[in-house]
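input
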Amino acid sequence: MSFRSKCLMSMTGYGRVEAQLEDSTWVWEVRAVNGKNLDMRLRLPAGFESLDPLIRRKVKAGLVRGNLQINLDMSASSGDNDYAVNEVWLQTLIENAALMHKQNPQVLPPRMDGLYLVRGVVSESTQSAADPKFKARNKAVMVSLDDMLANLMQARAIEGKALAKILKSNVKAFEALIAKARICEGALAGNIKQKFEQKMMELLSEDLPQDKLLQEATLLAIKADIREELDRLDAHIDQAKTLLKAGSPVGRKLDFLCQEFIREINTLCSKSTDIELTQIGLDMKSLTEQFREQAANVE
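output
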């Protein structure tokens, strides 16, 4: 069964379902938090180990990332929760207590209700889920697991919707910074040309060897123009919009995209000789970190 819809999904969420069949009742519960991969920790009643691979396969069919704690609690009004008394162990305790009392009358004999609490005296009988007679119940248990996972996905979708709103707002703010960078003095073609010519005049006055002069001029030309970095940042913005529109699972791609943003911003800042442009670069870094922090919650 597929639980996925075309929207951005958070990795955090909670799901709970109660169900019943004949005299058996059970509760599924799941808590999910962020994770680089899909990690499941199952807590099942004794005797239900045979359901473990079925549960994992079903969860993997619907989820891609996140740390999940999945619990199943079972109870029965009759039959399945019979209790057994270890009469041999109980009799041994009674005889030992009587002997101690005989040897030392000050030692009071234990009460029966106290003896029943001794480990191993009373035990709950375990009904194996692998027993064919529980086939119908097992099927109902797994169907209710679908319901629990659907509840979890709904919770993740609600939080994912809030995340998408924040991330889209972040992208819009980043676009505004790119537009601002394009019109600041340090990015204007005329200013770039003027600074380049000024630096070239300084290099020519140093009477450098021709090969050294050519090398310095090439480096200067590369560092003078930051429009290429701004163009690549525009391309990254378009990719971010595409990913946010596509919906989960895009968390890893968004994280990788943040690295590409940082790389271009660092280059832009290293080239900048303009205070305003440098400040814009720092603002871009801040926005990218905010974006990365929110994207870390995306499946």
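quick obs: Residues 83-123 form one domain.
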